[in-house]
Every structure is written in structure tokens, then in C-alpha cells.
Design a protein that fits this description.
Helices cover 35% and strands 16% of the residues. Helix 4 links the parallel strand 5 and strand 6 (126-131). The protein has helices spanning 16-27, 54-58, 75-87, 107-120, 135-143, 163-175, 193-203, 218-224, 240-248, and strands at 8-11, 32-36, 44-45, 63-66, 92-98, 126-131, 151-154, 157-158, 180-181, 191-192, 210-213. Helix 1 packs across helix 6, helix 3 runs parallel beside helix 4 (107-120) and helix 7 (193-203) packs parallel to helix 9. It contains nine helices and eleven strands. The strands form three sheets. Strands 3-2-1-4-5-6-9 form a seven-stranded parallel β-sheet, sandwiched between helices. Strands 7-11 form a two-stranded parallel ribbon. The radius of gyration is 18 Å and the shape is globular. By secondary structure, it is α/β, with parallel strands linked by helices.
Length: 263
């Protein structure tokens, strides 16, 4: 179990997931350090890509919650973090990943798989949590079509989850001795993309039609097979409609299109 007396370093703490995790950790009595490249107020300066400032940020921490990512490949960020953590007291490392990365041949997912291997093969105590796509990622698929007379939706399903629900599970992992690849988590509902598109449009008072589409190739087939879903009892509580209502009320971030853990 992670001690509340030793600080926790959160990478990506200013991103969508990080902004949900940090207050939950603080409310549970943890001393939290947020790593950021800018060194903005309330954070500690450190650049995972360059490896600068990270070793100092790691000093004395009991655990690292690794949420930092970029839109291309997380591998170098994770490699640098693992290398520096192994030299800095070997704190427990908890990595946020994505459901289905070992079954869906996307380039970005390849970087996630490589990062998981770096964590698992390290000399650190570690845990990895995979979650389904966030609500904001799904919403962004439709938001980018705002000038289209119709909204296109892929012919497969999502099980979107709220960042707050993922944050809650990460705090549970931090507070326990959970190790290795912990059980995947998904949102409260499995919904077709077209159904989610209709919900998105309804929340914005739009009557534009939705059009399903299919693409050839193994990537689309993997999603269509349900490789991005979590069977069994869902973990998430907040539905897609509840997320959209919160965005409309200004209580959540506007969709920005990032997946899993944002940096």
C-alpha cells in the first residue's frame, strides 16, 4: 500500500485525466507533485521528453502516476521516466493505458504497448490500468464534423468512460497493493457510434442526419470485433449524456480529442 506520507508524482497532471486525479488524491490525504514542462504555479518543472528536471522531481516520492502522453508515441517519455525512477529510489510506478492496444493495430497503440513493456520490464514495483476511450475523445469524433451537413459514424461500438471515473479507479490502485496488469475498466454503457453521434447532436439541438460507414482493413475490423470493449460489469458511472450535459453547463472540459491519459 502506498503511504500517504510520501509524495506522489503525477506526470501529465495538467491534462484531462490529471486534472481529475490530482484533486481526488489530495482529498485522500496524499502529498501530490504535478510534473509540467512549464513549471506553472502549483507544479514542478520537468521535461520527460528531454529528461530534464525529472530526477529532482522524483526525489523522495513513494509512487509515480504516469499519465503523460503525446499524440504520436509515448515510448520515449516512458523510457526516460523509468530510467530516472530506477536511479531515484525506485518508487512504485502506475501507468495509465488503453483497452485493446494488444488487439488493435493502431500506431499510437503500438507506442502504448511499448510503454507497457518498459514498465513491466523495469526494476520498479508497477501496476498498469487500461481504460476504454474517454467521453471527450468520442465527442471529438463528431465535433470535428461541425461544418458537415451529415455526421459520419463508424459501424462499431464504443464503451466510453468519464475521466473522473478513471481517476477514481487510479486512486484505488494507488491506495492498494494492486500490481501487474490490473483488470480493465470501461464506461457504464456499450453504445454504437451512431447512437452516440445522435446523442451528441441532440445535446446541441442539431437535427443533422447520421450516416454509418465501414472501412476495409484490420484496424476497423478490430474495433468492429469489440476489441475496444470491456465485457462484464462496467466500472464507470457517468454516461455519455451526463458528460455532454456537464460540458454544456461548463462543468467539464470541452472535447479536445485525446485518448486515455492526456498530457
Amino acid at each position: 500500500m502506498t503511504s500517504t506520507s510520501a509524495p506522489i508524482l503525477v506526470t501529465g497532471g495538467t491534462g484531462t485525466l490529471g486534472r481529475a486525479v490530482v484533486p481526488q488524491l489530495t482529498a485522500r490525504g496524499f502529498d501530490v507533485r504535478v510534473l509540467s514542462r512549464s513549471g506553472a504555479p502549483g507544479t514542478v518543472r520537468g521535461d520527460l521528453e528531454a529528461g530534464e528536471g525529472v530526477e529532482a522531481a522524483l526525489e523522495g516520492v513513494g509512487a509515480v502516476l504516469h499519465l503523460a502522453t503525446n499524440l504520436r508515441d509515448d515510448t520515449e517519455l516512458t523510457r526516460n521516466l523509468v530510467r530516472l525512477a530506477e536511479r531515484s529510489g525506485r518508487p512504485r510506478l502506475i501507468y495509465q493505458s488503453i483497452v485493446g492496444i494488444d488487439r488493435i493495430p493502431l500506431g499510437y497503440y503500438g507506442g502504448k504497448r511499448a510503454s507497457e513493456r518498459l514498465v513491466a520490464e523495469s526494476r520498479l514495483r508497477w501496476a498498469i490500468l487500461r481504460a476504454t476511450q474517454f467521453h471527450d475523445l468520442v465527442a471529438s469524433l463528431f465535433a470535428v464534423q461541425r461544418f458537415s451537413p451529415v455526421v459520419f459514424a463508424p459501424s462499431f461500438s464504443f464503451q466510453p468512460i468519464d475521466a473522473g471515473d478513471v481517476a477514481r479507479r487510479l486512486v484505488e490502485v494507488v491506495e492498494t497493493d494492486a500490481a501487474g496488469l490490473v483488470p480493465d475498466i470501461g464506461g457504464p454503457e456499450v453504445r454504437t457510434a451512431r447512437d452516440l453521434a445522435r446523442a451528441y447532436l441532440a445535446a446541441r439541438g442539431s437535427r443533422r442526419p447520421t450516416v454509418p460507414f465501414r472501412l476495409p482493413g484490420t484496424r476497423f475490423a478490430a474495433f468492429a470485433s469489440g476489441a475496444n470493449l470491456v465485457p462484464g460489469e462496467p466500472y464507470g458511472r457517468i454516461t455519455f449524456e451526463q458528460y455532454l450535459a456537464a460540458v454544456a453547463d461548463g462543468a467539464s472540459d470541452a472535447p479536445h480529442g485525446r485518448d486515455g491519459a492526456a498530457s
